[in-house]
Amino acid sequence: MTEPAGDIVVIHTDGGCRPNPGPGGWGAVLRMRHHVREMCGGEPTETSNNRMELTAPIMALEALTRSVTVHLYTDSTYVRNGITKWVVGWQRNGWLTSAKQPVKNVDLWQRLQAACAQHQVEWFWVKGHSGVADNELADQLATRGLEEAVAASAIAI
């Protein structure tokens, strides 16, 4: 794996549920020069794949302490298309879809928009489970986030 040049932060994110809907987890790998940060978390109660896929880039971007250029990789076309194509129209239409239905996960879309506004973010889609090392690691982190959230909720009972 080559290190990112200059002040570019390369982020790979993933999220998922087992089952969907069900408990979920998210993971992110952040790289800048020789620095690497791994992040994960989860929801022990019912959530969705899409909510976890959205949470991962939100948490990664919100973790950055200064404005930087970000290359953000996701295996979710929902997230990539939503933030690069659909969100402007949704916002213009009062957070309604073209079919005049409320946008799902509006809270997370608004939070992702705000997080992106702090940085210069370029979005990339990567095929999931295709051997891209940091995407595979983000997937493992999402699984760990799910497992840790479920385990913590079982202890709390």
Automatic annotation (TrEMBL):
Sorted UniProt keywords: Cytoplasm, Endonuclease, Hydrolase, Magnesium, Metal-binding, Nuclease
Catalysed conversion reaction: Endonucleolytic cleavage to 5'-phosphomonoester
Cofactor annotation remark: Binds 1 Mg(2+) ion per subunit. May bind a second metal ion at a regulatory site, or after substrate binding.
Compartment(s): Cytoplasm
Gene Ontology CC: one annotated term: cytoplasm
All copies of domain RNase H type-1, residue ranges: 5-147
Binding site for Mg(2+) 2: 14, 139
Binding site for Mg(2+) 1: 14, 53, 75
Pfam families: RNase_H
GO molecular function terms noted in the UniProt entry: magnesium ion binding; nucleic acid binding; RNA-DNA hybrid ribonuclease activity
CDD domains membership: RNase_HI_prokaryote_like (cd09278)
UniProt keyword annotation of Disulfide bond present: no
PROSITE patterns assigned: RNASE_H_1
NCBIfam families on file: PRK00203.1
Assembly and interaction partners: Monomer.
HAMAP family per record: RNase_H
Role played: Endonuclease that specifically degrades the RNA of RNA-DNA hybrids.
Family statement drawn from the similarity comment of this UniProt entry: Belongs to the RNase H family.
Protein name: Ribonuclease H
Organism, scientific name: Mycolicibacterium sarraceniae
Organismal lineage: Bacteria, Bacillati, Actinomycetota, Actinomycetes, Mycobacteriales
Gene designation per UniProt: rnhA
